[in-house]
Amino acid sequence: MKKFRKVLDGLTTSSPVNIGGAPLCSSTAGTPTAAPTPREIEVVETLVSENFQICKTVRHGFPHQPTALAFDPVQKIIAIGSRTGGVRILGRPGVDCYCQHDSGAAVLQLQFLINEGALVTACADDTLHLWNLRQKRPAILHSLKFNRECITFCHLPFQSKWLYVGTERGNTHIVNIESFVLSGYVIMWNKAIELSTKTHPGPVVHLSDSPRDEGKLLIGFESGTVVQWDLRAKKADFRIYYDEAIHSVSWHHEGKQFMCSHSDGSLTTWSLRNTAKPFQLTFPHGRTQRDGRKPESCKPILKVEYKTTRNSEPFIIFSGGLSYDKANRRPTLTIMHGKSITALEMDHPIVEFLVLCETPYSNEVQEPYAVAVLLEKDFIVVDLTQSNYPIFENPYPMDIHESPVTCTAYFADCPPEIIPVLYSIGAKHKKQGYSHKEWPVSGGTWTLGGQTYPEIIITGHADGSIKFWDASAITLQMLYKLKTSKVFEKPKMGDGRVAELVEEDPFAVQMVSWCPQSRLFCVVGISAHVILYRFSRHDATTEITALEVRLQCDVEEPISPSETEANTGLLDASLHSPQHPPGSPGSATPDSVRDSIPCLRVKNRPIRMPPGYQADLVVQLLWVDGEPPQQITSLHLNSAYSLLALGNCNGLVVVDYLQKNVLLCMSTLELYGSNDPYQRLARSPRKSRQFAAGSGSGAGAGVGYCPTSTPLSTHCTDNICMRGLSNFYSDSKKRIRTSYQSLTELTDNQVSLELDRSRSPTSVPYPSPPHNDHCSLPKPTANLKANHCSPIFYLLDNVKGPGRKLSLPTDLKTGLDHVNGHCTSPTSQPYGAGRPKLNRRGPSRPPFRKVQSAACMEVSLPAPHTEGCASRRAMLQQLHGYSVYSHDEQHSTAYSWNERESRENSFSRSRSSSVSSIDRETKEAVTVLRFMESYARKVDAVPSACLWVGTSLGVVLVIALSIPTDEEERLEEPVTVMPSSTVLTIKGSVLTFGSLDCNGSLVSNPYEVWRDPHAPEDPDCPRRRKLVNFSPSTSQEMSGEGHLAVVCSEKQAKVFLMPAQTCLYVHHITESSFVLRADVVSVYNSVCLACFCANGHVMMLSLPSLRPLLDVNFLPLTDMRIARTFCFTEGGQALYLSSPTEIQRMAYSQDMCDSLQEMLGELFTPVETPEAQKGFLKGFFGGNAQTFDREELFGEAAAGKASRSLAQHIPGQGGLEGMKAAAGGVVGDLARARMAAEERGQRLGELEERTALMMSSADMFSRHAHELMLKYKDKKWYQF
């Protein structure tokens, strides 16, 4: 029987049936096919493959996990290195470049070649890289890989070509920057310290040349040893031994003294005249002892800078050094200027800081004017020229992650007036107190490119805030910020209904919908609410209208008649279960039932709203019989119709926001009417509650509760799996915080059961043991406590598997039960006797679905593992918040584990809505909605307003709308909503819709022209609605010609001819993966379908023929953050959240990639190097530095060659000529061939010279040997 079902599934999937009546021609995957049509559709497609190319354009935001900082005082550009191997180079606004090391190793240190247009990076893989910054796209010129030693510190003197490199072994090597090879000159650690020293001095933590004499190198070791090495004499001038470890060293500009920071929070100042002890010892934040003893130790001072000024006392600036007795103090940057000590508290830990000075010369008065501070999650610059030390206003978008990003939207070619309007309103709410001086990082040049148009990026955040960004011309600047939390009452601790929400993010934004033309804005929140905003330039005091919607769905399992008899016994058995014992987790009092209440309380009083976006309407889904509302999975807004539609896994809601009433509230099943393509097993409403109603309390017998004495039933399995990864929260009040501040990496649990290591994330539990005793279970699983049965542990098991990691908060780890040294989750054991079951409706459950921010989605899903149904389900659960749990997986006793596992990992099954009953999903979610001018029925002669509905089962429903045309009637007459009989099918969950006229042009949505709702009334010119309609009938000569409807799912794309409902083209996008994001976009004055797949492929399909134009494996999907935030836009651009703090923009059109070079800023600009100060008094008092020729000491002639095994030179491709050659095709090949020939000729010339030299030396040796033979030829033995 199973084999017959598989064959039947294969037949049905290979020959899909079109509901419209026209048969489809079967085709292989990736080949578009055409079906017979009532007439020929002739569309001239202008797009070709040459129009498309994928490239990354620019990255915005704060560098994620920063590690290093560098500044060029002449070019005035700054570089930031990160833990993932990235380097961000910033100059004036518009000059922003991102570079990435191929190895991905963390950047340990950065060194600019000051005013040379080059940068040296030292990475954690012990490799030095030289970057060429004299081109818009920096590239690596040379690399040097150390094989036997680890790099700890680098120092490059100003205007020097020799780089000092300190290592973990305590040695100091010297690298030639021009050739990037090691010199034979090495300062060994055992030569630097005294011979009598018995201990190793530790790694090198500091290197610097003396301001007075470039031939003196100061070496600081971690143990507290400081050595000044005479490079000429190759010996140590003096050695300092201190008890405390050294973190940093800073010279006074005269070179007569230097300052050290130590691990005990002290600062020591040393004079070169007497190095026996420091002439000054201070504990800036330590308490002095009354008896004269040494002050108490403080936290380490990680870095100190000692800078002098002409007209005042020197600046001593350091980080750290706070006393231990003050707990929970924020990180501080301390500025000591004369007798004043100022501690600047930071919001985040300090990673690095640099003092910006007027001169690049270390032997001149430094004149510091600012401090650049790199924090863990921010970058600030402090103004030192003012006594209150204000910070500069940062022109870069460094605050994208101010609250974790949960969703993104990208709009290109917006109305030109929208950006100035948003900016003018947003500027009124900017923070004050910034420095009045200009931003000091002002290097580089940037000009506005030729291809510029208004672009806006919208980001939603976990705290409920919305940010509008101006993204025109590859820049990013915040325009306007909106806080959705102001619509609701603040949760109070005394309120029992929301007491548990205080620690959560109940206002988190899940999705947004924006109409730039009408300026209407919709926000979907995680607490199952929708807020409609109207834009006004005037402030107003109004009351917000709240509509409460009770949307529930009586689950009916789709099932075929052939399975009805076979499964009757199993279903009947699931109806009966033992009652809950008194006091069990499944029992509760009737007072705990939550019904017909929203998750949040809307303010019910008049609210004063400032100019900008003002809330007009709130739609909230209610609790139903103790069940929290399901997350909203789809939303669409149309200003011309004044309608709003939203859907979730329970059904569909249509709202008239003009009359402020609900037009339609129906379950998905009810939308079908008599045209349901499935045969479903009818069952009584709330059957799942009757399943556990024996306790006599409706609240305690929640859906999904299973008694501990019975195996997990069909309904319980369904309810556990109906929640996605983003919806889980713990019953033990260990909250999953969406903020990435507490994220730590949780490695895979080492469970001894081999079965658990290979089980699928969404696979059903295997059968329970026959007896209800703990002895029948493995020991680690028998010790589980009741409070472990929370959904978060199901989340852990959902992502558990080979090569998978999940980042979770630190406070979550405390809730894990460590059994026998292993971390055990409840899903690592069978669902059986002795195991506590989950109560979905317990009184401790918070009344909303927990949001998972896109910023903290750290679920690693390697590309090979994403090509399976299990990975698909886990990802879709996080993407949409609804389950894709299959009907066949509920019957856990029907077949063995191996069969289930093979079926889980097989893609031969159909994920569509075919007649197969084995692949049926338990709930049908509304995944996409769109209002458009279309034909609701086959018999319609003219198009009318319609709502297209797409579901997770691959079904498309068309709902007819009857809207009054007169403006006065529209305000009074009701809008009629009628589900039609039109049902279209496609394989996989529906993702997007599109509408084309019969000429292949895109039909845009109709909209209403914006008018200010609070503008003063003009009696002479009454305001009236202005509608712009893009009906298919207006874009072509014949109104009855129809239009083309584009439907794309996670597996297929289809083009239907309306109103005939004939499928003209079908294209199987992918078989081994699935589509995550699809959009119908305009590019090159034409239209195409853009798709992003879970395997990282970006695809472009022509419309309407669905001909493949591009298929590039561009972006490996390493975590769910990319999937949740990836979006296409018009004009050939797209974006995604590349890290929790950064937005990566990309282009997929050839023109955009070609014009990218023009749009990027120049990092290097020709600037004259300032001259060193000269004067009689300075020379008389010894201020001028003594120079020496480093080439004489470090060159190959004097120092010889370094050992080849010590470091390996790797040539790069970063030269300008090399880049041009690499991009020039045949020209590049010829250039490389010519270069290779020249190198070969050069080597042959060298070989010839060596051969000639060897021949001459051989002749000389032969001549001397002959002369010696003649000399001693005739002599006797006694004559020698």
Provide a compact summary of the structure.
Its main location: membrane. The protein is of the alpha+beta class and 1280 residues long.
Describe what this molecule looks like in 3D.
The protein is of the alpha+beta class and 1280 residues long. Among the domains are: 71-145, Thrombin, subunit H (Beta Barrel); 146-241 and 1189-1208, YVTN repeat-like/Quinoprotein amine dehydrogenase (Methylamine Dehydrogenase, Chain H, 7 Propeller); 257-286 and 295-396, no CATH class; 930-1011 and 1026-1033 and 1042-1137, no CATH class. The chain contains 21 helices and 68 strands. The strands form 19 sheets. The chain has a 5-stranded antiparallel sheet, with no helix packed on it. The chain has a 5-stranded antiparallel sheet with strand order 7-8-9-10-68, with no helix packed on it. A 5-stranded mixed sheet has the order 34-35-36-41-38. Strand 15 (204-209) and strand 16 (216-221) form a beta hairpin. Helix 20 crosses helix 21. The longest helix is centred in the C-terminal third of the chain and has 46 residues, at 1226-1271. The chain is globular, with a radius of gyration of 36 Å. The chain starts with a helix and ends in a 9-residue tail after the last helix. Residues 1215-1275 form the V-SNARE coiled-coil homology domain. InterPro entries: Lethal2_giant (IPR000664), LLGL2 (IPR013577), V_SNARE_CC (IPR042855), WD40/YVTN_repeat-like_dom_sf (IPR015943), WD40_repeat_dom_sf (IPR036322), WD40_rpt (IPR001680). Belongs to the WD repeat L(2)GL family. One of its GO terms (cellular component) is SNARE complex. One of its GO terms (molecular function) is myosin II binding.
